[in-house]
Amino acid sequence: MDKLFGTDGVRGTANQYPMTADMALRIGAAVGQYFRRDTSSAVHRVVIGKDTRLSGYMFENALTAGLTSTGMNVLLLGPVPTPAVGLLTRSMRADLGVMISASHNPAQDNGIKFFGPDGFKLSDQVENEIEALVVEGVTPAAAVEIGRAKRIDDGRFRYIERIKTSFPRQLRLDGLKVVIDCANGAAYRVAPEVLWELGATVIPVGVAPDGANINEGCGSTKPQSAAEAVVAHGADVGICLDGDADRVILIDETGKVGDGDQFMALMAQRWAAQGVLAQNTLVATVMSNLGLENFLKDQGLHLERTAVGDRYVVERMREKGFNLGGEQSGHIVMTDHATTGDGLMAGLQFLAALVTSGDKASALLHRFDPVPQLLKNVRFAAGQAPLENAAVKAAITASEQALSGKGRLLIRKSGTEPLVRVMAEHEDSTVMQEAVDHVVDAVSDAVSTG
């Protein structure tokens, strides 16, 4: 069996390995047995949330069957953002939280993410142990110990009330016109409701899910429609979430898109000035722009880099006691308020800055001039390992030498798709382009020749 877990749980095309109903049942049984090892509690429970994909029904039922077969009681939340699952796992004293979502991926994909009883995502070690149980098989509970399943109708309201506590109580959003793009995903109800309750004039985009249109022409990976809505309505800001609402991309009043790096620079600067940025350090991944690193240095602040994936950002934050981190793609983690990336919460923090500073969104979203950066992807087939090819290794070495001193090259395999990602930064965009193309051509040749 191929490896199940990637950088963010299990993910793939619905009804194809590993995202089949049978595999979801086996995973549910395995994770149920793993978290029932603690025999000190008479009651074992798991909360399950999902986004709006059609296949979510299938995986919800399969996981429920697997979990209840091992004696777990299942609480079904229905469509809620991923951060809501992390929150409710902890607040409902559950042993485990499960989110059924493929985040920003298209509707035909789906995935399964897990949260421990503390509301944080599972470590690599725990995932490896669960994967071993999937292979070995588990012993089902006795008939009298089979778990029950119950639907929880107020999960989204609990999340709404919790997320509003992250917004300064003395502030309101009266007079602000906000475009909110929910990607036809998990936050299609909660996000507009939160903004309206805080006083904003809300212009919703991507709030009509039909099971097949999640992330389709909308959301954080396709913010063009939201940008057009900002300009058309004369809005102050646009907030674009992805399918499970754990990431955010912001749009200023002119329709210009600002990425996670600019937002993190803003929050690090503000929190440092307020004396609440732990150890004057921001945690980001290797994908964040060199311009962010240079900006922080100028501010007397520090940048810690991790592997790609918000889970690794959170692990570093917990390990060293930092409280602000995230990814260029828009995962923003604020551990004073949440256990994982929360796009809506990050959006609220930006709105608070907008209200208190009196500045326009365009000023807040331009903290630094980014160093030119180029990212290209090369798709490969199952079983191929293009990064092991000698010609590819030689091309990588040559490109690293070309960028040395004034830039950097980053080559990695995606943890969620069969892609090789080739990213470079350099002050000279021509040098950068040549370095990336040299590696991409070598990888493409290796893939085509098998």
Overview of the molecule:
The chain is an alpha/beta fold. It has 14 helices and 19 strands. α2 (about 55-70) links the parallel β3 and β4 (about 75-80). α13 runs antiparallel to α14. The longest helix has 20 residues, at about 430-450. It starts with a strand and ends with a helix.
> What percent of residues adopt helix (DSSP H or I)?
25-40%
Oligomer: single chain
Strands side by side in the biggest sheet: 1-2-6-5-3-4-7
Discrete helix count:
14
What is the distance, rounded to the nearest whole angstrom, between the alpha carbons of the first and last residues? 22 Å
Major sheet details: 7 strands, mixed
Structural class by helix and strand composition: alpha/beta
Mean pLDDT: 95
What's the overall geometry? globular
- The Rg value, from CA coordinates, equals 22 Å
| Share in β-strands | 15-25%
Number of strands: 19
Q: What ranges have pLDDT less than 50 throughout 5 or more consecutive residues?
A: none
